[in-house]
Amino acid sequence: MSWLKRDRPPIKTDPKPARNEVPEGLWTKCDGCGEALFQTVLEENLWTCPKCDFHFRVPARSYLPILVDPGFVERDAGLVAGDPLEFRDAKMRYPDRLAAAQRETGMNDAVLAGDGTIEDKPVSLAIMDFFFMGGSMGSVVGEKVARTIERGLEQRRAVVIVSATGGARMQEGHLPFVSILTDPSTAGVLASYASLGDVILAEPGALVGFAGARVIRQTIGEELPPGFQRSEFVLDKGFIDRVVHRKNMRAELAHLLDLFWHSTRGFAADGRPSPHVYTPRAAAHGRPVP
Questions:
Q1: Which residues have a Cβ under 8 Å from the Cβ of 265 and sit 6 or more positions away?
Q2: Which has the least CB within 10 A, 120, 142, 184, 226?
Q3: Cis preceding-peptide flag for 204 (omega within 30 of 0)
Q4: Residue 263: CB partners within 8 Å, gap ≥ 6?
Q5: What are the pLDDT digits (tens) for 90-148?
Q6: CA proximity to 128, closest of 170, 175, 184, 80
Q7: Angle CA 171–172–173, to nearest 5
Q8: Alpha-carbon torsion angle 109, 114, 119, 120, nearest 10
Q9: Rounded CA gap, 141 and 108, in Å?
Q10: Exposed, middle or buried: residue 5 (CB in 10 Å: 0-12, 13-18, 19+)?
């Protein structure tokens, strides 16, 4: 049975004028300034525009090496969503839509999770992938994010979650939790764990908000200020801690983890030794350790 059925004809729209296309795989047009950019140039600049600094959306596996040292170990890669509701939309069955997304992205679902290090500091990491069905939260995404935090607690690793979606619910942890907001980071994900980080970082120009701007505009009956719900706007309002360019994200994250690392003596639980090899900062500089 189809859960979604259109009873009325779709709204008629004027056909869009033809536009000049560039060969796929060679060039990409910047959404920020309109510049046509070589793919190789974009890759060298970590998928940011060298002219206007616009941050492109990138798949999870492309974002991974931007942050993490070599040696990342993926976890729970075999988890696959079921179809208990036998859901079917207007075009296809849910399992078929999942299979199509898996073929297009090479991912089993919309999040990449695992263990690694950032400048030698142990982390439990989850990176959401907007290209897998818009990064939508299903049972597998929720389970993998929850397991990411549980592994952090069990193994005393900092938890780092990169959001690019909306819609989730989970509990807080008691370890350093750094939340990184990329474009977009909205709705249920923002309302739950993405806004609960000890430190919240965001990429420039990222859309950060719960309800959409159109809904808010219609609700309050007023025009919204320029840049509304972009990372720079919410930074000015105190909602996030810092806007960080993608090229600087790894260094910023490493600096924060280093502060947490020493303030918690190697991510140790209260009254317990660290399960990691930890050298106090004073000892590392040849001074006595209190």
A1: 274, 278, 280
A2: 226
A3: no
A4: none
A5: 888 989 999 999 999 999 999 999 999 999 999 999 999 999 988 887 888 889 999 99
A6: 184
A7: 125
A8: -170
A9: 10
A10: exposed
Place of tokens 């249920």: 188
According to DSSP, the β-strands at 158-163 and 185-186 are unpaired
Backbone phi and psi for residue 188, each to the nearest 5 degrees, phi listed first = -65, -35
How many CA atoms does the CB half-sphere of 177 hold within 13 Å?
20
Per residue, the 3-state secondary structure of the chain, as one string, reads: CCCCCCCCCCCCCCCCCCCCCCCCCCEEECCCCCCEEEHHHHHHCCCECCCCCCECCCCHHHHHHHHCCCCCEECCCCCCCCCCCCCECCCCEHHHHHHHHHHHHCCCCCEEEEEEEECCEEEEEEEECCCCHHHCCCHHHHHHHHHHHHHHHHHCCEEEEEECCECCCCCCCCCCEEEEECCCEEHHHHHCHHHCCCEEEECCCCEEECCCHHHHHHHHCCCCCCCCCEHHHHHHCCCCCEECCHHHHHHHHHHHHHHHHHHCCCCCCCCCCCCCCCCCHHHHCCCCCC
| All structural domains of the chain with their residue ranges | 26-56, 57-269
User: CATH for 57-269, among 3.40.190.10, 3.90.226.10, 3.40.50.300, 3.40.50.12780?
Assistant: 3.90.226.10
Residue where the block lists tokens 């525009």: 49
* pLDDT < 70 stretches in the chain: 1-25, 85, 166-174, 270, 282-290
